[in-house]
Amino acid sequence: MQQPVLTFTEGGIYCPAGGFYIDPWKPADRAVITHAHSDHARWGSRHYLCTRDSVPLLQLRLGKEISVQGAGWGETVKIGGAELSFHPAGHMIGSAQVKVTVGGQTWVASGDYKTENDGISGAFEPLRCHTFITESTFGLPIYRWRPQTAIFNDIEAWMRENEAAGKQSILVAYSLGKAQRLLYNLAHTGKRFFVHGAIYNAHEVLLGAGWPLPPVELITPDTPKNDMKNHLIISPPSASDSAWMKKFAPYSLGVCSGWMQVRGNTRRMNADAGFAISDHADWTGLLQTIRATGAEKVFATHGFTSVLARYLEENDIPAEVVRTAYGGEEETTETNA
Questions:
Q1: Disulfide: which of 59, 91, 184, 214 matches 95 by Cβ 3.0-4.6 Å?
Q2: Which domain holds residue 206?
Q3: Strands, E assignment, 5-144
Q4: pTM of the model
């Protein structure tokens, strides 16, 4: 019987033929990284392999001194007895699915992904494979995203309402990924963008790497409050309800997260508005992707795994739940998705 291409271990998803781990949650000799969020890219491994676009982001997160190699989209990298390649996941800048082939069997580890092209993160690429490892962050039928254009229209209308009411507009968004998506898609408004230091640091790295993002202004203790009036502040979730944010009063707080799809979450987050804009696939996107892979077996990880796996089984797609250490990015789960 042929050995599985990938196995699930206490240290992460492991490739026996290649001797590497995909997004290991314990230090490994060789770590293949899907994207630079901290629950997938952890410090301590001896050598890292990721997409070229992810290299500066891994260095930002893990330190300039790490040993890291970047590969191009679709470029085949041979490691031991395995062939590996990266393909767009659409989750954030540099995010990838990892395709691994051993002895004619192909497995794909999706990492985190979304199927709507946001304009900056790359268009998701469905991959044919024998076995597919899928995330299931929003693996419930209630999660069905409206088109991105409609949500950004809502955000712009909210900003105009705040301006008319004499309130400062503040959007809460994860500092790496979501914040850049907002900036890219709101650049046409002509507004100035004022940001927290966590967002500024990531933004500067991406600008230095040549990404077409609008300029931002770092908020410091010396930034005049009047300069920000009628413009937009973007804050990471960690600064919500903090002394840093309270100094902008009067303000209206909008939270950008897929969790805002559920009525009541906006109020629970002490926000004035909730925008259900997610960097993960919704229920429809998950099912469409799984069918497009043609996979003979699906493993569901991090999220509503049991619901998704049961649905797949009921529809004649063999599926299994796998527990991982993913899904715990350093900023609260209510706002980083």
A1: 91
A2: 148-275
A3: 7-9, 12-15, 20-22, 30-32, 47-51, 68-71, 77-79, 82-88, 96-102, 105-109, 131-136
A4: 0.94
